[in-house]
Amino acid sequence: MTEKKYWQNFGEHNNSDHSKKLAGDEFQEEPPLFSFDSKGLLEMKTPRRDFLKYLGFSTAAAALAASCEMPVRKVIPYLNKPDNMVPGVPDYYASTYVSGGDAVSVVAKVRDGRPIKVEGNELSGITKGGTSARVQASVLDLYDTARLRYPVQMVNGLPKEVTSFEAFDKLVAGSMAGQNGTTVLLSATITSPTSKQIIAAFLAKNPGSRHVQYDADSFSGMLQANEASYGKRVIPSYHFENAKVIVSLGADFLGTWLSPIEFARQYVSGRKINEKAPGMNRHYQFESMVSLTGANADQRFTHKPSETGAIAVGLLAALGGTVTAPPALSEKLKTAVAQVAKDLNAAKGKALVVSGSNNINVQIIVNAINEAIGANGTTISWAAPIQTRQGIDSDFSTLVTDMNDGKISSLLIYDANPAYDYYDAGKFKAGLSKVKTSVSFNGRLDETSELCKYILPSPHFFERWGDAEPKTGFISLMQPVIAPLFLTRPYEESLMKWSGNDQSYEEYFKIYWEGKLGGLEAYEKALQDGVLEPAQSAAAAGSYNSSKLGDAAAAIASAKKSSELELVIYQSVNMGTGAQANNPWLLEMPDPISRGTWDNYAMVSPKFLKDNYGIDLSDAPQADKFEVHPERPVIKLKANGYEITIPIVPVPGSAEGVLAIAVAYGRESADPKNTASFIGRAVPGAGRNAYPFVSFNGSTFEWSAADVSFEKTGDDYAIAFTQTHNTLEGRTSVIKEMSLGQFIHNPDEVPDEREDELKKFGGIENFEKEGTLFGYYDKPGIHWGMSIDLNSCIGCGACIIACHAENNVAVVGKNEVMRFHEMHWMRIDRYYTGDYGNPDNVQTIFQPMLCQHCDNAPCENVCPVSATNHSSEGLNQMAYNRCIGTRYCENNCPFKVRRFNWEDYTQADSFPNNQDEHGVGRLNDAVLMMNDDLSRMVLNPDVVVRSRGVMEKCSFCVQRLQDGKLKAKKENRPLLDMQDVRTACQQGCPTEAIVFGNINDSKSKIVKTRVDNHHRLYHVLEELHVLPNISYLAKVRNPDTEANA
Amino acid sequence: MHHYRLSAFKISYSYLLTAIILFFGHVSIAQDGKALFQSNCASCHNPIKQVTGPALKGVTSRVPDQKLLHAWIRNNAAVLASGNKYFNDLYNQFSKTPMNTFPNLTDADIDAILKYIETYPEPGPGGGKGPVDMGKAPESDNSLLYGILTLILAVIMLVLMQVNSNLKKLSDDKSGIPSSDPIPFYKNKVYISMLVLVLFVLGGYYLVEAAIGLGRQQNYQPVQPIFFSHKVHPGNNQISCLYCHGGAWDSKHAGVPSLNICMNCHAAINDYKGEPLSREDGTTVDANAEIQKLYSYTGYDPASGKYTRPGREIEWVKVHNLPDLVYFNHSQHIRAGKVQCQTCHGNITQMNEVKQFADLSMGWCINCHRTTKVNFPDASGNGNKFYSIYQRFHQDLRTGKMDSVTVEDIGGTECQKCHY
Fold first, then answer.
1. What pLDDT was estimated at residue B283?
2. B122 pLDDT exceeds 50?
3. Spelled out in words, what is the top-level CATH class assigned to the domain A152-218+391-466+484-521?
4. Taking CB atoms and an 8 Å limit, are A79 and B298 in contact across chains?
5. Which residues in chain A come in under a pLDDT of 50?
6. A782 lies within 8 A of chain B by CB
7. How far apart are CA A179 and CA A19, in angstroms?
């Protein structure tokens, strides 16, 4: 453990001058008004006169403010108050997050009629209450200012309001009358049973019509491979919790692949360490870029995307599969495959191989591998198949051809945006212009909708009834939690109207489910629970047939060979396919790996930079020169006949000769001037579109490209990274990691190290009282504490967004992030270890970092106005109204978790022109968008919106603590551990990495966690005697030490 | 003389004692019935007035059968079903408006209610009980006296100083020491600097006072869109505060009642018969016109008893304003803290239009938190069980180290109890 070196950026790795300077100067700029230099007071840039001017202004302002009268405030009660709500008391309603095919059971917190927070639904057997960053952020989509507010007809590329649904229905009916072509409904995967029934009725009314499902992140390869191997065009469910050995061939199953919330929980359940009998699963990742899943792997092997098939075939061969002439592999991969195969063989029946490839042949091979290792029926179950992806790529490709051939006369589009996310968007657009009646049900004027003739926005899932069936038999229901904000209608209702059914969707839904469930009572119970699930059934095997295996292997063998430079297209954890592209929370969330915000870029290996730009990152001055500035070199990249200019970002661990670009960025209206008003104000300038790099191989879309060429443009582009912000001055002892073998061999390594460090001050036992000159303060009743298990944390960032939503954390925009002004109360530090010259050797560790609520907090001592001080419950309190903004506290915080409001991000100040800062940069439009009355509806009324000039930081969700205590007091009972009080980050976490509670209560889970895991427990920077109330559990990896020895 | 005074004292003392005993004894009985009446019956009944239901005074003579009356009050539907003529007639007379059932009322409860109804005073001027003065007795203000004293002392000091300087000048003249011409007092540097000092201190004091008072609105009493009298509603008619401000029980906001709550009673009550109401400035209020205003807001037509027009909301002027940076929770204070409404809102039952009683300053909050005792569980288990986690305090209470636990002791004066 001790010999490893951890670093967050290249400068830190090399201990360069800039890195040291950065560690020393937390504030990267001079104070804006007075710049002192050695020339003396009178010759300063701000001389005496200016000083007097400021003095005069502030006196005048103070006098003015003082003479202001109190405004008259009105209070307007209901005319007729609904029975079931009390103003000021939140209600919770079960609903379902739906985006693309994804469906996640959630619970909406509704305060005074407004949903303000999304939580996972703990009754869901799939997610078990977990969420992802995108689910957490979906409540902001409800208040998106770019949502279409009424039905429109497009006239000359501009929307013209249609004032009523009747008028709209008439327009569409008129347009569809007398058509002689086919009607097609195009949508993302639809899992809703009622919607499917309505669609079937609609199709039956329109003979010759068809429904095409199109998924931007297609699983067509897998669906078709399963059809070949198992005779069913479905995706089975996976049980990572049953697997001892997990091998992923480029599947980012913790971040973006299929059902990441579910898989993360399963995966981590096999990695939680029981100290009495330590053991955990082993995870191998083969990949071409650094994915979130790869970062968590015990061992990573990098390769070029063109080698994926060969690796799969090689693995099958090594497992004893009958493969004729397996394609050649490099020496490195050959050893890797042999090692993995050995492990898989040893864990037969308890092993799982997944592949992120969308290639049918690769997936057929993977099916064969899973058959060989006995995964079918153990770690792979066909009992309740996953339904969230059903789109077949060739169906859509045929549709586009048909459109261009003029065979389609009506196209109805719901929840699909091929004009943006189809690789050949030009062809789609050309086809769309030939469709006589094009109707879009999308919620905004996205790239596809603006080309349609009629748009009838469908409501947000919080405004409507509905259902989803992410897995067969697992139903998740929606109910409206807010009255529709705009004139919207569910697309189902339109289909019903247009097929002659005048029922409302609500009635239809109610009748359907009451009929299914047998009565109103059961229906209401189901709505309340939000889920309807069968009893957990045992995993079931599918009947396998290997007939297509030979063809698949042959196809892979004859596939295109690798080229010098290749390209991977991937989804980033925060943005996914781009459906939430106008969500500033997600755009500002740092990418878990690169820690970049607001943009996409090409991730390359450090070697690429050295080879092409001569920048050697292992050379300290050069690394500094490169890293100090946010500017990154821009290349012109060409592949698959598409060309973009894009900045490159060196990421340790990236495969050599591979570039990786995230989709979901670079959205743009047909006329770029309209982008802000049509797609959203946060969109313009956010990255470039990478979808056109995807290609179609005749049956499926390939998310990679070979034969990539590039040229240097000589330009630079600034990207807002957060990776060098808030460094911990090189005290990387904050990370403690060991291998499972080490841990079993010497479980006392961490305690010994701690004891060693603290021996001088009384050892671990007496450190608190003996290690200080100051007194000891009692915590008489409650003493809050948190434990974060680094083994469970996968770095997905759900907690960051949960915190964002709960605590009204401000969005600051790209310009401000570049100036080190981001406001996240919680960040996930990403540390690397290993040699970045060898991508397979680089390992990544995530550490959630938030206010540690030190019982001997250094920030408290230096506050001149005592705005930050300690509570008798162990909280490091921050009184915003007392803060005068000296920032001493931030400077003195060893964890760098305090955030200063440099600008008026929230428009909370009384000075209206505070946001027009010509002198010190302007706020991005996205920030101003968040100040819109509509966006502000998402604010949590229990938390103050901070204004300019005050410090803020994590409060341990004090509003929740107070609320939980009050609930217990009202009910005349002690606090219930893990029920009354949970922090937002804890509740949002899909893997239960965070435990929070009262450490004075010996029966609480937090105490139990600390006692049961005392061999891994440590506090970050414990030796400073700041006495953090957050403890971490050291990370344990499980590499194959035998093979590495 | 002496003897006479003593006996007079004795007589008045014993008389007072008797009166007190009688008074409290009486109150405790009447309170039960009153409380039960207020919580169960008052939304539809008035003892002396016909509202949604009949005026109740005299009911025991109208229905002499006590058993029947009890049965009726508990479950009127059963009595109606039994075909009792009196009650069926009554039911029809009140256009078949069903009465709620009260199966949980005991005989003793009902008797207490009936007793309260029958002893309810006939309306008349000054019929209500004298107000309980919640405000503090006016403290004798000595500042004027001190001011005059200071002024006199200052004048004396000035005179003495003048005398002193004159004498000094005389003695200097006498002993031949040459002296400069006398400086008029308004040019005397000592006087001027003293004056400046005094002005500075006074000015500073008032400036700081004014600055601290910014944003405070004690005694704020805005004119409301409807002259709603708390003196009439919770005062004379003794409607529970929570009947209208139910939010105070569950929520951080006490809330202003929605108009449907007003109409629960005012659908029937359209005529004010109480004592005449007057504003602060002495002008009289036409109470019935104010009730008509409510009807115009709600769109109610009292003639037909129906809502004939669409309603519109009332924009009340908010009296008690806390700054956004404060989190205040009514239910916390009322349920966990068991604080009376009047503690913070003053003698609301004597206010026609609401006036802000407390200054709602942080110092005022903190002072209360410092002195208020927490409902700590005692040895017999009374008190809030939440506080069982404060083990050290329990120990200290047992050993006598502490005699009580205040809100401050459990952290009630820490910043993040109210500011987050």
1. 87
2. yes
3. alpha beta
4. yes
5. 1-2, 34-36, 1045
6. yes
7. 68
Q: What is the pLDDT of residues B354-382, one digit of tens each?
A: 999 998 999 999 999 999 999 888 777 78
Which pLDDT tens digit goes with each residue over A776-807?
Answer: 888 888 999 999 999 999 999 999 999 999 99
A781–B247 CB contact, under 8 Å: no
When CB atoms are compared, the residue of B246, B312, B389 closest to A1001 is: B389
Torsion on CA atoms B69, B75, B76, B78, rounded to nearest 10: -110
Q: What is the mean pLDDT of residues B68-88?
A: 83
Percent of chain B with pLDDT over 70: 87
Cβ neighbours of B266 in A, within 8 Å: none
Residue-level pLDDT at B136: 43
Q: Which of residues 32-61 of B touch A (CB under 8 A)?
A: none
Tokens of A317: 């061969």
CATH classification for the domain delimited by A220-386, as one of 3.90.226.10, 3.40.228.10, 3.30.420.10, 3.30.70.360 = 3.40.228.10
The predicted structure's pLDDT at residue A399: 93
**CB-based contact (8 Å) between B266 and chain A?**
no
Kindly determine whether residue B416 and residue A881, on different chains, have CB atoms separated by under 8 Å: no
CB proximity A73 to B under 8 Å: yes
Co-location of B193 and B276 in the same domain = no
Q: Is B331 on the interface with A (CB under 8 A)?
A: yes
With an 8 Å Cβ cutoff, are A970 and B331 in contact? yes
- Residue B69: its pLDDT value, please? 85
Domain count within chain B: 4
Shortest CA gap A81–chain B (Å): 6
Based on the domain organization, do B337 and B236 belong to the same domain? yes
Alpha helix ranges (H) inside A347-436: 360-372, 393-404, 418-421, 425-433
Residue B332 placed within a domain: yes
Mean pLDDT over the full length of chain B: 82
pLDDT in tens, A69-109: 678 889 999 998 888 888 999 999 999 999 988 999 999 99
Distance (Å) from the C-alpha of residue B211 to the closest C-alpha of chain A? Answer: 7
A718 near B CB under 8 A:
no
Q: State whether B346 and B247 are in the same domain.
A: yes
Q: Quote the domain boundaries for residue B370.
A: 362-417
CB A401 within 8 A of CB A374: no
Cα separation, A309 vs A361, whole angstroms: 8
Please give, rounded to a whole number of angstroms, the shortest distance from the CA of B326 to a CA of chain A.
8
Q: DSSP letters along A579-638, please?
A: TTTT-HHHHHSPPTTT-EES---EEE-HHHHHHHH---TTSHHHHHHHHHSSEEEEEEEE
Specify the pLDDT at position A3. Answer: 59
Chain B residues whose beta carbon lies within 8 Å of the beta carbon of residue A943: 420
Q: Are strands A642-650 and A631-639 parallel, antiparallel or unpaired?
A: antiparallel
A778–B420 C-beta distance less than 8 A: no
Separation between Cα atoms, residue A659 and residue A633, nearest integer Å: 14
* Nearest residue of chain B to residue A62 (CA atoms): B211
What pLDDT does residue B6 have?
44
Determine the pLDDT at residue A64.
Answer: 64
Task: Specify the DSSP element, H or E, that contains A382.
Answer: strand A380-386
Q: Are residues B191 and B275 in the same domain?
A: no
What is the pLDDT at residue B125? 47
